[in-house]
Amino acid sequence: MEDGASSGVTGARPLALSVSAAPPQPGLYLVATPIGTARDITLRALDVLNAADVLAAEDTRNLRHLMDIHGIPLRGRRILAYHDHNADRQRPAIMAVLAQGKSLAYASDAGTPLVADPGYRLARDAAEAGFPVRALPGPSAALAALSVSGLPSDRFLFVGFPPAAAGARRTWIESWRQVDATVIVFESPRRVKQLLENLCELEANRVTVICRELTKKFEEVMRGTAAELLERLPEGGLRGEIVVLFGRPEPVVPDENGLRDALAALLDERPVKEAAAEVAARFRRPRREIYALALAMKKERE
User: Fold this and answer.
1) Which of 293, 253, 259 lies closest to 273, judged by CA?
2) What family is reported (predicted)?
3) Whole-angstrom Cα distance, residue 203 to residue 220?
4) Alpha carbon distance 302, 175 (integer Å)
5) Distance (Å, rounded) from C-alpha 183 to C-alpha 246?
6) N or C: which end of the chain has fewer CB within 10 A?
């Protein structure tokens, strides 16, 4: 984790941070931590890390380092490890802490807990048991990448990490390829090239953005089609933390028979105007054109 203490502003005075807030109420606190620059943590997160009765982390070394950077002492507290390999064994111990009426702060390796990390089961079980579960918003690699990508953000789909096996990865791509949304993917830097190769087999012109090392010293954003970026990537892949985003698919342009089939499925249940509006929006065709076709079909039926 990079220490981003420098502000880069000439003559700027160092900030005096206070972590002397009142102890948090009992419950589970999901603490978002920096994805790179250490100063991206929130003041509330520092307060909770300073005052929580018990600490837990996906990577205890990362959390300890972050606390050291910001001058937060452990004061005898242990940091419980909670990750993919011990979650089932460790969860009962964490639930026991909550049952004692204590506050427990859980931090993912980097970014927002529950986004591609094992915190989901912990939050679900705590909520089902009636314990308060509170989120401390903060850094998120997925949302940071979406912000800088230049791709539409009104509708997006986060699909996590692709399967490692080539066949499973192709099936996985098919599961989201036609979704009308910006798609956000976490990928190993060594397998980015394979991911683009698989997509190019189906849709080489898909608008693609690769974000590398977000918020860190060597941050890089690459934009182009899947085919163009595939040509630019080195043979051995990339280095660092990677987020890949894919723009929305090109709309399928149906012939008249396809439009008629889509309208026929709706005209039995909806007024002509509503059916035409939905089909026009779905296929991004002029509403007046589809409305005229729907009226013609209704007359044919009559």
Assistant:
1) 293
2) Belongs to the methyltransferase superfamily. RsmI family.
3) 24
4) 40
5) 5
6) C
What are 246's strand-pairing partners? 183, 208
* pLDDT at position 5 over 70: no
**Identical topology for domains 27-139 and 142-246:** no
Nearest of 110, 302, 65 to residue 216 by alpha carbon = 110
Alpha helices (H) along the chain: 43-51, 60-69, 87-99, 119-128, 141-149, 166-176, 192-203, 226-232, 256-267, 272-283, 287-301
pLDDT tens per residue across span 127-145: 999 999 999 999 999 999 9
Question: 27-139 sits in which CATH class?
Answer: alpha beta
How many whole angstroms separate alpha carbon 87 and alpha carbon 118?
A: 7
- C-alpha 124/C-alpha 185 separation (Å) is 24
Question: How many other CB atoms sit within 10 Å of the CB of residue 259?
Answer: 22
Which ranges of 9-59 does DSSP label H, i.e. alpha helix?
43-51
Cβ atoms 135, 165 nearer than 8 A: no
Convert the pLDDT of each residue in 237-252 to its tens digit: 899 999 999 999 987 6
* pLDDT tier at 18, thresholds 50, 70, 90: low
Thinking of the domain 142-246, which architecture would CATH place it in? Answer: 2-Layer Sandwich (3.30)
- CA 174 – CA 159 distance, rounded (Å): 12
Predicted structure pTM score: 0.78
Residue type for 234, please? P
- Residues pairing with 236 in the sheet: none
Domain ranges of the chain: 27-139, 142-246, 256-301
Tokens for 129, please give them: 């048991």
Model confidence at 207: pLDDT above 90: yes
> Which one-letter amino acid corresponds to residue 127?
A
Identify the DSSP state of 165.
Answer: S
197, two tokens: 């190769």
